[in-house]
Amino acid sequence: MLKYDVVIVGGGGAGMRAALEASRDPNLKVVVLSKTFPTRSHTGAAQGGINAALGFGNSNDSTELHFRDTVKGSDFLGDQDAIEFFASNAPEAIIELDKLGVPFSRNEQGRIAQRPFGGASSPRTCYSADKTGHVILHTLYEQCLKNGVDFLNEWFLLELVVEDNQFQGLIAMDIRSGEIHAIQAKSVVIATGGFGRIYWNRTTNAFNMTGDGTACCFDVGIPLKDPEFVQFHPTGLASTGVLMSEACRGEGGYLLNKDGERFMSRYAPEKMELGPRDLVSRSIETEIKEGRGFGQGINSYVQLDLRHLGEKKIMERLPQIRQLAIEFESLDPITDPIPIRPSCHYMMGGVHISDFATCSTPIEGIHAAGEAACVSIHGGNRLGGNSLADIIVFGKFAGLGVREKAKDRGFGSKERLEKAAAKWIDKFDAMRNKTEGQSVIAIRDKMAETMWYNLGIFRKEDEMIKGLEMINHLIEQYEDCKIGDASKIYNTAFINYIEIGNLLKLAKAVAMGAIARKESRGSHSRADYTQRDDKNFLKHTMITKQDNEYKLDYLPVRITKYQPEERRY
After folding, report:
1. DSSP letter (8 states) at residue 138
2. Is there a catalytic annotation at residue 277?
């Protein structure tokens, strides 16, 4: 049986920042367990930048302004004590990355360059061209290796083992060998990212973004907080959903309808293309619905025009954007506008965090950070540039939290872990030998179609209820699935089967939360309840799973300095 003081599940930015912080205690044995090689984690897809009020883009910027912008961006659903903590710690987090070797782009004074992003009152988004997440990921991986962090790459989390509200350890599969292992541990950080693949092919998310850690926390009774708040990025490529960074608009890109009109003047006359993501996404979809888009049906789109920026600026500031447009749309943004449409991008909701300073959950020994977690700083809508800042700031504090927790706790029950591992070995054998049953792929595709049409950018009660009924039906069908692969080594069909099961659980929570929230706030936009309702819904949705029963409850939003007001841009 493997034995570690601290296990980090997830090899992205939050996971490796947590591992780096935990490994600063040389007496602790720390491991990162990741289902992909760490430098291939989804953090690498974050293009545009990372927010911090350094004041290099505007000397009048401050952490207080970052705090205020984030509260406003959240549509007042973010917990203000957590947001202030986040904004106050972001500058130091960036300086630490700079010292670790992240190659940030520089301004004429040689300082870290900062660009404007949607919903921000100052240019505070630090960047490295349009590959910011990529360079952060590689730098953190190098530093973890330097600090002696172990890595279990291409390992897949199956279960968190909990007894009497105490974390015991976890069960994971070595994908390469097909062996299932129990791992004793004193504390764990869940940093497995979001679960945008509930929309499957209409998302900017990588194929591995299936909410595995979030689902495992949900299974052991940790609530999901605010799952209904799904961010749709305004600019996903029309044909694939691949992300066109907000940096495109930050650098001055235009959004055009089929009449060649910069239509954002109708929706955000002051901010134009730099309005917050929820507003810009709804604006694009409104243009399409009202017949001012290009194409028909699911293939409709508007255009992102960068041509006026010129070749030099595009090659210097947006080289990856150009490469992606050429590879996926067969056009060059230097000479052609890019076809784009909103695409599921980010989950504001996630694992309920009960103490943001340690990123701990209600179960002793289990912590979470990054998109898998809901602190909550993003509330109803995340501002661009705040996600990388989130994973770095709270990744660090999660690492501190598990480091201290590992000093206080002993190892979990070996017998309990062995029993859980045996159950999974039997399940794997049974699935490999099963020849009859439902197709996992058919269930996945139906789930994605249901989520996009019934719980997408615009929502109505009758459509959402039908969506929930279909998700429940798919969950029933899932119980009789076959995977069609009898091999033991590299059985990715089995991994895919578990991933789809995780997504179905989380999709049901999204639907339940969305139906119950009878208002429009942030990314949650209802045609039948068009106004924000602070009297009845200035509160966090909390969904708890007990066996197969889902229970919905609420938690008050923590307001400290800024009283809710109408959000205008």
Report:
1. H
2. yes
Question: What is the distance between the alpha carbons of residues 230 and 394, in angstroms, rounded to a whole number?
Answer: 20
DSSP category for residue 360: B
Residues 232-285: tens digit of each pLDDT: 999 999 988 888 988 899 899 999 999 999 999 999 999 999 988 889 999 999
- Proportion of the chain above pLDDT 70, given as a percent: 100
Q: How many CB atoms lie within 10 A of CB 458?
A: 14
pLDDT number for residue 239: 86
Q: Identify the bridge partners of residue 355 per DSSP, sorted by sequence position.
A: 360
Strands 539-546 and 224-225: antiparallel
Q: Which of 277, 403, 459, 532 is catalytic?
A: 277
Domain 416-556 indexed as CATH 2.170.190.11: no
Strands (E), 100-220: 114-115, 125-126, 150-153, 155-163, 166-174, 179-190
Answer for the pair 11, 36: CB distance below 8 angstroms, yes or no.
Answer: yes
Distance CA 422, CA 266 (A): 60
The pair phi, psi for residue 114, each rounded to 5°, is -130, 135
Residue 290: C-alpha distances to residues 213, 254, 284 (Å)? 40, 20, 10
Is the per-residue pLDDT at 379 higher than 80?
A: yes
For the domain 233-343, what is the CATH code? Answer: 3.90.700.10
Strands 481-482 and 438-439: parallel
Q: Give residues with Cβ within 8 angstroms of 29, minimum separation 6.
A: 3, 4, 5, 6, 150
Tokens of 118: 């949607």
Name the token pair of 167. 């974390």
CA–CA gap between residue 224 and residue 230 (Å, rounded): 13
pLDDT, tens only, 3-59: 999 999 999 999 999 999 999 999 999 999 999 999 999 999 888 899 999 999 899
Q: State the CB neighbour count (10 A cutoff) for residue 164.
A: 7
Q: Is the dihedral of CA 18, 150, 196, 537 positive or negative?
A: negative
Q: Angle of helix 440-454 relative to helix 492-516, nearest 10 degrees? A: 20
Which whole number is the average pLDDT over 55-70? 95
Which pLDDT belongs to residue 517? 98
Any bridge partners for residue 230, and if so which? 347
* Tokens standing for residue 181: 């292992």
CA distances from 323 to 129, 154, 385, 538, 541 (A): 13, 28, 21, 43, 40
Q: Residue 212 belongs to what H/E stretch? A: helix 212-219
> Which ranges in 122-193 belong to alpha helices (H)?
132-146
Spatial contact of 491 and 485, defined as CB atoms under 8 Å apart: yes
What is the rounded CA–CA span in Å between residue 397 and residue 404? 11
| Domain range summary for the chain, segments of one domain joined by + | 233-343, 416-556
Residues 434, 427: Cα–Cα separation, whole Å: 11
